[in-house]
DNA sequence: TAAATATATCTTAATATACGATATAATCTT
DNA sequence: AAGATTATATCGTATATTAAGATATATTTA
């Protein structure tokens, strides 16, 4: 199989999997909120400047987004100890929970699929995800 | 490994993979537009009523969304032959292309990852995606 | 001490999203 | 054939989201 054909198939399957297995009753969370929360999750914490840069918006906008998420209880902030000008934005547990509902596969759905398959297939999937995410991190991070 | 732990790991890896490998310079496409285009892609075509139901909005809203996407050239419509009241909305090639940029992994990034890994690892990934998407279809469709 | 940095707030404007009211055309029911 | 139902389209209205310039405050650096 040609690599490009394989990539095309993987991509189609990727979207099929998400389409079928994602959470469907989600709290309303805006697109930029999701992006912001996810950046924080993947990086552990973020300054307003980080967020502005990552979202490709002005610092004012990033600050406003953050303010709204703080109000909703999805993030909190702590002032930097080395440089008190800096504010580090971190996820609350509620924020993490809400983020997962917007970005992850539905646990119950995924479980249903995995328990109904041959255990060595499930193991293959486990391994494949580990390899692919590791590969992605090595190559692109 | 406990199934729930495995699911947690898969989910974390799932989001890591997407975070690292998705297209990053995307044309501006609204959240509802993406959802609408994707519904059409996964189903081949859709009526306004289908779209309204899937998006959980009124038919007026679905019709307006569709109108805007038609204007952008991302979808087109054809009147049903059995029932001419019905309009079937289908993706244009441009629509498909734009949708893929918002929902799929970046081909070049994915390729970079796959060619740098052991070929049997790549084969494992190919197989795993096929199995998982097939499993999802069987269980949840 | 002045300049630079980091963030916060306010104001303004554009865009996204939604739905009720209304209208038209097609199909179904009586 | 007429009336009712179905499917969609358009218009008007409203709210939420998004964005950035102007301005302000606090902290750090030169």
UniProtKB/TrEMBL annotation, chains A, B:
This is HTH-type transcriptional regulator SarZ. GO terms for cellular component: cytoplasm. Gene3D superfamilies: Winged helix-like DNA-binding domain superfamily/Winged helix DNA-binding domain (1.10.10.10). GO terms for molecular function: DNA binding; DNA-binding transcription factor activity. Belongs to the SarZ family. Coiled coil: none annotated. The keyword Transcription applies. Residues 1-134 form the HTH marR-type domain. It comes from Parageobacillus caldoxylosilyticus NBRC 107762.
């Amino acid at each position: 199989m040609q690599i490009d054909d394989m990539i095309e198939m993987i991509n189609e399957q990727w979207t099929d999997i998400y389409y079928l297995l994602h959470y469907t009753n989600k709290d309303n969370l805006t697109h930029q909120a999701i992006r912001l929360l996810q950046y924080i999750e993947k990086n552990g914490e973020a300054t307003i400047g980080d967020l502005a840069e990552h979202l490709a918006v002005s610092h004012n906008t990033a600050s406003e987004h953050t303010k709204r998420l703080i109000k909703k209880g999805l993030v909190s902030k702590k002032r930097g100890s080395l440089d008190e000008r800096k504010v580090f934005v971190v996820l609350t547990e509620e924020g993490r929970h809400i983020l997962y509902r917007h970005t992850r596969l539905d646990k119950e759905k995924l479980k249903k699929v995995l328990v109904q398959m041959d255990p060595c297939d499930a193991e293959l999937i486990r391994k494949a995800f580990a390899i692919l995410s590791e590969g992605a991190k090595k190559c692109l991070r």
